[in-house]
Write a structure and sequence with these properties.
4-stranded antiparallel beta sheet; 11 strands; 7-stranded mixed beta sheet; mainly beta
């Protein structure tokens, strides 16, 4: 069973940056889309970004131009670089291998 382990969350001031990392337990990771989702308090989980096995990317409108998703097949990682963070980006961020596995979630808090 594939497992996803996330790291990199924390507290940051508005305008700051954070980088989330997701590591897959198996090399199967390289064949599939990887995605990040987030869930803010009292809200439903929402899509943030995805990257295909060939490197194509897609972003939600709210993070386009500020967030960048990337992957390293050799390391089995998918990272989310988050710049110019806003208070409304505060949420638990989840790494996702669609239809296969979810990570445990990383808290990101944007506050002064």
């Amino acid at each position: 069973q594939v497992q996803l382990e996330e790291s990199g969350g924390g507290l940051v001031q508005p305008g700051g940056s954070l980088r989330l990392s997701c590591t897959a337990s198996e090399s199967i990771f390289s064949k599939f889309v990887m995605a990040w989702h987030r869930q803010a308090p009292g809200k439903e989980r929402e899509f943030v970004a995805l990257i295909t096995s060939t490197g194509e990317t897609k972003y939600s409108e709210s993070v386009t131009g500020r967030f960048t998703i990337s992957r390293d097949t050799a390391k089995r990682t998918a990272d989310l670089q988050m710049n110019n963070l806003k208070p409304e980006d505060t949420a638990v961020y989840y790494c996702n291998l669609p239809g296969i596995a979810w990570g445990q979630g990383q808290q990101v808090t944007v506050s002064s």
